[in-house]
Write a sequence for this structure.
């Protein structure tokens, strides 16, 4: 796995040379060589680039998370490698025949962890509404039948940001919603990469079972990671760039760079998001193979990281 995040915002041509990428920037005539083994995530954040089939093949072969942004600066597509995984047939059968009881318990745990991370996010910012969310965690049932996730969302989104009229809406164009949507798109691309690389088929979700959504499993597994990104979006907007009203390149680069920060704890150690997602997905696969939920590990917020950011 690589460590670099390549964020392309200028018009460029991308080619393959000696199994690595060559970026030729049209506006300056600059040429940059990038070693593929160093890349973990590549983001095409403009519609003025030229890319060859060889480039797409190289990105897929090296399992590089790839996200494309449209001319309105909205995430438009994700490149996920179609691996000839050695055990793909067996894994697909395990996913299809996953016991309903196991699904229900895993979804219950995922929602509990998501709510715990929401509560911890509020606590970091001295928001005492986290107690309300803590009280909901104990009420989460099998498959979250009583929908405590929605109850928590009502409290969480009304209080996390300092703006009284803020409403969390996926298609909204205000600065906070735009930052959140951008962050979640990046998170989704990273999760899709790890799911594909593991040999799992993303269409077979735990909770999301929509015939029009090819990434149901991705959307399920990413839930506990959302509040961790929320905390950083709050810091960016309210502490570092409070005067910004549009999602510009500077903000985008800050959001992308967060992938490599030690913002969470998983399996007893501090980790960045990309590394944690790989471990998380691998352990989910072990749960399916062994029909044993004890293999599962979940991310939690690294409070020290965010406390240092607030100093």
């Amino acid at each position: 796995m690589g460590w670099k995040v390549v964020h392309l915002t200028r018009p460029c041509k991308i080619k393959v040379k000696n199994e690595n990428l060559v970026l030729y920037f049209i506006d300056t005539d600059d040429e940059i060589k990038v070693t593929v083994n160093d890349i973990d995530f590549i983001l095409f954040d403009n519609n003025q680039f030229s890319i060859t089939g060889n480039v797409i093949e190289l990105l897929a072969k090296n399992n590089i998370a790839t996200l494309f942004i449209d001319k309105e600066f909205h995430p438009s597509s994700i490149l996920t490698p179609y691996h000839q995984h050695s055990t793909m047939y067996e894994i697909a059968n395990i996913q299809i025949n996953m016991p309903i009881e196991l699904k229900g318990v895993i979804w219950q745990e995922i929602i509990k962890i998501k709510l715990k991370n929401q509560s911890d996010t509020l606590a970091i910012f001295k928001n005492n509404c986290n107690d309300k969310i803590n009280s909901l965690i104990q009420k989460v049932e099998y498959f979250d039948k009583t929908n405590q996730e929605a109850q928590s969302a009502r409290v969480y989104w009304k209080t996390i940001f300092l703006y009284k009229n803020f409403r969390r809406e996926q298609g909204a164009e205000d600065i906070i919603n735009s930052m959140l949507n951008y962050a979640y798109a990046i998170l989704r691309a990273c999760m899709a990469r790890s799911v594909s690389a593991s040999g799992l088929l993303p269409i077979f979700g735990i909770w999301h079972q929509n015939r029009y959504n090819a990434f149901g499993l991705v959307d399920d597994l990413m839930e506990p990671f959302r509040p961790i990104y929320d905390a950083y979006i709050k810091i960016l907007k309210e502490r570092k760039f409070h005067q910004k009203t549009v999602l510009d390149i500077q903000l985008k680069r800050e959001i992308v760079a967060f992938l490599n920060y030690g913002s969470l704890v998983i399996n007893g150690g501090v980790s960045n998001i990309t590394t944690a997602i790989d471990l998380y997905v691998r352990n989910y696969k072990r749960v399916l193979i062994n029909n044993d939920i004890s293999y599962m590990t979940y991310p939690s917020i690294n409070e020290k990281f965010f406390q240092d950011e607030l100093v």
Residues 4-79 form a domain with the Ribosomal Protein L15; Chain: K; domain 2 fold (CATH 3.100.10.20). The longest strand covers residues 12-17. The CA atoms of residues 264 and 301 lie 5 Å apart.
